[in-house]
What we know:
- This protein has ten helices and eight strands.
- With 217 residues, it is an alpha+beta fold.
Amino acid sequence: MTLLQDIAARAAPHRLGLFGALRLSAEDGLPPVWRTLVLLGPEEPGFWAHLTAQPEWADGQADPVDRWSARVIGQIAHAFGGLPLFPFGGPPHHPFFRWALRSGRAFASPVAILVHDRAGLFASYRGAIALSEEVDLPPPVPNPCDSCAAKPCLTACPVGALGHKGYDVPACHGFLDRPEGQDCLNRGCGVRRACPLSKAYGRVEEQSAYHMRLFHK
C-alpha cells in the first residue's frame, strides 16, 4: 500500500476520508520539512452517527466536533510522523480554502463556495496532515460543475442570498429568522442541498441542522 492508502485505511474507522492531497510550498507558511498535505473530510454515509457516539459529543463541553477532530486527526498524524492542522482555532489560521482548490478535487462553484467531486456543495474539511514525505499525488479530477447543465445551485436560494454574485450573509440570516426560512435552518442550506453531488453524498439533515444553528446564533 502507498502512504496515502495507509492514511486512508487509518482514517476509515473514524468515518473520515481523503478529500485531496497537494504539494506544499513556501507560500503555505509551514516549515520546509513538510512536503505534502493530506486533507480529511467526513466520509458519508455514516459520519454523523459515528461522531455523535463519541465521548466529546456526550461530555456537555463546548465544540464537540472540533475537539473530536483534534483528537482523532492528531492521533492519525502522530501514527505517520505528520503534523495535524485544522480549519478552526488559531492563530495561525491555515488556508484550507486555497489548499482545497490546489488539491485537484475541489473547485469554486457557480455560487463561489467550494464544490468537491464527491461531497458536492457539502464540502467540508475536518483537518489536514502535513507529511515530510514527497508522495505521489493522485491525478486531478474534472470540475463537476462543467458537466452540470442545470446548475440548480444558482436558483435554489429563495431570497437570492447565495448566487453567482457571491454570498449576502445578512440576507441569509434575515431569511432564517422568518418562518419560511425554517426549512433551510432545519434541513440545511437549500443551495447546498440542490447540488446533484450533495444529494448523492449521504449527509444527514441532523448534521446540517447542527451547523446551521451554530452559523445562525
